[in-house]
Amino acid sequence: MSSPQTTPIPQASTKFGLDNSIYLDDNKSFRRHVLERVKEVSVSQDILLFLLAFRILNALSIKTFFQPDEFFQSLEPAWEIAFGAESGAWITWEWRHHLRSAIHPAIFAAVYRLSSGLSWVLHLSPTYRADLLVAAPKVTQAIFAALGDYYTWKLGECVYGSGSNEAWAALALTVCSPWQWFCSTRTLSNCLETTMTVVALNFWPWQWSMDAEEDDEIDNDGLRINEKQSDVDEKAKLVTDFWDRKQNPDSKNRLRRCLLLAALACILRPTNILIWICFATFALLRITTHGKMLSLPWEGTQIWVHISSLSFLPATKQERMVLLTEACLCG
């Protein structure tokens, strides 16, 4: 009896970065798994492209004024960084005394320089050059806002599951929010801080805030994995392993990305550290409450007393050590 023939699948191997010479059995399990992965990529790309177009339209259509910080704490210092102290920028006193981080205006300074260079290469007239310099920071902030919307949706999927109604509801709420339309594309440091925080939360090890269980999957560093992988046959797992390494790095790398983004957000706005203190507390400590009956002889009665205490129940010892070590390295 001849052995079953194998069919080359160059599309799948090219899509997932595998060698084209690899041949995989043509079975339903493999095809279904590949199609699910390709569909996830396609949907994510479509959502991101839609959000980029939507927020760019949002940014260019906003003509109103919100508060002075969107100019005097970002664009005016950026203009001076890009074109020099004699360029006519309005610099407020805290910038003259170096009381603020220059990360945020430095981003827009780079945008101004690139826009100015592009206008010189294209030989634009002064009018079109001015229009480009006005629009460039808006488009840049629109990209940040779109990333914030996108990772809000991905955070919903992280918490409630891929393709869940709750994740789609989170996306709908952020896209349809009048406040987001009014504020998210403005050049405020708060807007960039929000995006960085949302992206960081996608990498936060949420599973460390839960009690450890015997059936938890553990990575090579002894850390609990965020999502349990479904059982697939060995042939489909070839694609799954590559995909998961690319899209879902191990817990330590995810934590490192999270803490680096959190550190940048805290440099941008120091009050952001309050958010991460709360998350670290939830991961490291657990408040347990138990009751106890106390007798009151002089009253001849008993009362129920609630007693609260802190414990190291959620995260394992290895996870606590990794969290503290990475926080010191990244922060």
From TrEMBL:
Q: Does the keyword Transmembrane apply?
A: yes
Q: State the coiled-coil residue ranges.
A: none
What is the protein name for this chain? Mannosyltransferase
Q: In which pathway does it act?
A: Glycolipid biosynthesis; glycosylphosphatidylinositol-anchor biosynthesis
Q: What organism is the protein native to?
A: Letharia columbiana
In short, the EC number is 2.4.1.-
Q: What class of enzyme is it?
A: transferase
According to the UniProt record, one GO cellular component term is: endoplasmic reticulum membrane
Its record classes its membrane topology as: Multi-pass membrane protein
Kindly state which keywords UniProt assigns to this record, in alphabetical order: Endoplasmic reticulum, Glycosyltransferase, GPI-anchor biosynthesis, Membrane, Transferase, Transmembrane, Transmembrane helix
